[in-house]
Amino acid sequence: MSVEIGQSAPDFELKDQHGAPVKLSDFRGEKSVVLVFYPLAFSGVCTGELCQIRDELPTLGGDDVQVLAVSVDSVFALRAWAEQEKYQFPLLSDFWPHGGTAQRYGVFDEEKGLALRGTFIIDAQGVVRWKVVNAIPDARDLDEYRKALAGL
């Protein structure tokens, strides 16, 4: 079942690349969230997408917006990737139960065992205001994130 626009975003708690727990609900009442599911760390399209987010982060709403990037990779792989690419936003591990959060959002590819390229923009009240789901090889357009955030 997919999470749809207008629904409350399912809460979750996942560990970031440093092993610290991050809850979606921690941002409620404080910030909008750009929740980015991606297939795998170190892959070409994923690196390109997250580097673009890293480089354009100030134009995505500044301190009022939190980017959370989620994959099925382990915390250890995410830490190595974050250090290599200098990502400053949390990379969250949906490692166990394997893809559980991606499944709850309806963006888990059961056959391949990883997330599709799903993005959910969640307002400060925890409601999904925009979403896009792309196939694994298809990169997303960061300008669409900006437009959706400007509409909040």
Automatic annotation (TrEMBL):
Annotated ranges, domain Thioredoxin: 3-152
Enzyme type, top EC level: oxidoreductase
Gene3D superfamilies in UniProt: Glutaredoxin
Record GO terms (molecular function): peroxidase activity
Family: Belongs to the peroxiredoxin family. AhpE subfamily.
Record note on quaternary structure: Homodimer. Forms both dimers and octamers; a tightly-associated dimer and a ring-like octamer.
Taxonomy, superkingdom: Bacteria
Task of the protein: Thiol-specific peroxidase that catalyzes the reduction of hydrogen peroxide and organic hydroperoxides to water and alcohols, respectively. Plays a role in cell protection against oxidative stress by detoxifying peroxides. May represent an important antioxidant defense against cytotoxic peroxides, especially peroxynitrite, which can be formed by activated macrophages during infection.
Alphabetical list of InterPro entries matching this protein: AhpC/TSA, Peroxiredoxin_AhpC-typ, Thioredoxin-like_sf, Thioredoxin_domain, Tpx_Peroxidase_subfamily
Protein name in the entry: Alkyl hydroperoxide reductase E
Catalyzed reaction equations: [mycoredoxin]-L-dithiol + a hydroperoxide = [mycoredoxin]-L-disulfide + an alcohol + H2O
Organism, scientific name: Actinomadura verrucosospora
Keywords annotated in UniProt: Antioxidant, Oxidoreductase, Peroxidase, Redox-active center
E.C. code: 1.11.1.29
Secretion signal, residue range per the UniProt entry: none
Active site: C46
